[in-house]
Each structure stands twice: as C-alpha cells, then as structure tokens.
Amino acid sequence: MRQIVQRTSERYFRKPAEKYTPLLIFGPNIVASEGEQWKKYKKIVGPAFSEANNKLIWSTSVKVMLDLFDDVWGEQQTIDVGHGADLTLAITLLVLGSGVFGMETSWKDRTTPAPGHTLGFQECLRIVSMNLKTRVVLPKWAYYLSKKLKLIDVAFTEMEQYIREMIQERSSSTTQKSYDLLSSLIEHNKQEEEASSLNDRELIGEFWPTVPDHSGLLSQWKGNIFMIMSAGHETSAHTLCFALALLAMYPDEQTALYEHVKSVLPETGVPDYSCLPRLTRCHAVLNETLRMFPPVGGIPKICTQTIWVITHNQKGKEVLFPVRKGEMLSFVPPALHYNPKYWPDPYAFKPERFMPGDWPRDAFVPFSLGPHACLGRRFFETEATAILALLISRYKVSIKEEPQFAGESFEQKKERIFTTKHLLSLT
C-alpha cells in the first residue's frame, strides 16, 4: 500500500475525485478535490491545524468535560445514558463550537440568540449537525410542510449568517490573534495572493444547490469549513462511542486505563496540555478502536501510468504485479486492520498492540497515508484523549443490564452492541 500512496501524484496514481461526488454536498472542498485544486486547499487549510489550535482543542475539551461533571451530572453517583453516541455527540459539538468557530459554549446556555438572530449559535450548530442528511434529501419547498422542517431550514439559514458575521468581524479585527480553525483559515487566506485565496463559496459554503432540484444532486452544504465541521463532529463522536463500548465490554482493559490515567493526571485531576504525550494508554485505546472500527470503508486510487508494484503470494514470496493505466485500486482499511499477518487475534480488543514499541504502522490506515492523509488527525487525537482520560478518571463505564437481553453470551452481547452501518462514515 505504501508503494502506491507514496506515489500518489498525477504521474502514478491519483485520487478519483469523481468518486467523492457525494461529498460535494459540502461544496468544493479539500476532501473531494484533486490536483491543483487540492494543492490550493491544502496550502490554506493545512496550516490551520496548528500546535496553537491543538492547545485550544485540549483546553476546550477539558473545560467541556469539567462543566459536564459539575453543571450537568453534579452529585449523581450513576449516570444513565440511553445511547453512548447521544453523550459523545453532545460533547464533541461543544468542543467544535470553540475549537472550530471560536465561540464560547456551555452545557447550560445553549439557546441565547445573538442580535439579529432567532436561534442561538449552539442551537443552530446542533440542529445543522444533526440534519445534514435531511438537508441533502429534501427539496427547498419541503421545509414548509411542518414546524420541525421549518426549524431546520431556519437553522441552516442562520448558521450561514453567523459564519459570515464571524468572517466579517475577524477579517477586520486588530485584537489578539485567535487560534480556532475559522480564524486561522481567514488569516492564512488573507496572506495568499488573490488568485490562490479561497472565495466565499470555497471557504464558507452554500446552503442550496446551483443545479435544479430535479437532478437529484442537492448540493446544499458546500465549503471547507463545513467539511471540517462534519468530520470533526460526527466521526470523532462515533469513535469515542465505540471506545467507551469496548472498555465496557472489556473491564480489565478499563481498569488498566483507569490506573494509567490516574498515574499521569496531577492531584487536582485536571490535566494540562503537557499530559497529552504521556497518556500513552489512552492513545493505545483510541488506536485500537480505530483499528477495529475505521471510519472509512475504502480508499480508491486510479493508476495514471502503467507500473509494476511488489506484492507477495500465498507462500510469502515477492512477486511483481502490473497495475495498468486507468485501472482503479481500492484499499479497504477493515481488511487490512483484521489481517492476522499484521494483527494477531484481530477480533480481540487489545490496546497493548499500540503501546510504545514496534507496531505495523503501514497496516494502520484510519487516517489514510501519504500526502492525502487526514489533516485533522491531531485535532481528533487531542480532543479524544482529553475526553477519554477525564471520563475514565471519574466514572466506570458499563453496559446497562436489560431484562430482554438476560442470558445472552459475551459474543451475542458484542454483536448486538457493535452493530454498525456506513453512511458518510462508520456509525
């Protein structure tokens, strides 16, 4: 695989941008682009994922969790969560508000609208994030059919207004520099020459398609900001949900993680950014979760020039394999992640595979590899580590016992808990 991803250029292999057409619901963006357009986007979007932004993500994640413990859960000894994703989606949404948009967020004040708005920013962000698929499927006239749909329409419209106001304010601001992703994107975009900078459509996005509704390609959500928002919210939340479920199913691993976290966190129980690299078992748990439940099911490439690649036959002998011009290859992360050649006992949850040492990095591709690897990897790792460490340091996670599932075996429970489906990512 590394032979091909390292050769990913117009000379050898390219990303088939046409296969990413569904992602154009977000508008022109770095994920659904290739060639010169992709280079243009990466030049501006890439630097926004900086060390300064990572520190902001860490402090925001810690604040969100501490506020959850103090202001929402309070003195409750047991917290009953109907579905783990309900919790993790709420957490990552609050982190998103600050880390991506630079807006103050809290568990208590979610609905206060800014002047000129009927919905608060957090409420807009929540409704929009939970209704992306609705926006893709329904034509514009459908939003007048019910109060619920009308509210969704209002949220999308006001979200655009909020972001345009943020861009106008920050573009003209002379105050101290901010390190949220939106502010960083604006700053780097301003530094580019006019021909290289992103226009409003590329930076912010649009909410309604530029093609007739009858085409069936309703591209309501467009732009790099909304691509970041979607990936940063839903993908992070679902991975955290899988991680908590795995820890609940494997209590020995949860105990080992708890002891490790307590050994790293200061006596106050509030970790600072310097704790991040020392929370190695948190990293291992998250990596093992991503190995077992990678967000993306396939990574396609098209050969632009006939070449020979080295592979191995069933006996382990090296053989040359021709890849002809125009042929498409697709790397399937679950197949690689469950290959016993690289991961012994692949169906077992074993975070120690990723503890410091020599593990097969080329066989671990939840973020892809090479130049097109996910730019938000560090964003996710920072956010998820802070959330996981704080939650496990204070609470034990378990699967609620329900009468209708009494008597089921470990394997039956595991199959029930980890039923998944692929939409834009694994859920």
Order of helices and strands: HEHHHHHHHHHHHEEEEHHH
- Strand count, sense and closure of the main sheet? 3 strands, antiparallel
Percent of residues in helices: 40-55%
- Terminal-residue CA separation: 26 Å
Strand content: 5-15%
Low-confidence stretches: 206-222
List the total number of helices: 15
Helix/strand structural class: mainly alpha
Overview of the molecule:
With 427 residues, the chain is mostly helical. 45% of the residues lie in helices and 5% in strands. It contains 15 helices and 5 strands. A 3-stranded antiparallel beta sheet has the order 1-2-5. It is globular and about 70 Å long. The two termini are 26 Å apart. The relative contact order is 0.15.
In short:
With 427 residues, the chain is mainly alpha-helical. It has helices at 2-5, 35-45, 51-73, 84-99, 121-130, 132-137, 147-171, 181-191, 200-203, 224-249, 251-264, 280-292, 333-337, 377-394, 410-417, and strands at residues 13-14, 299-303, 307-312, 318-323, 328-331.
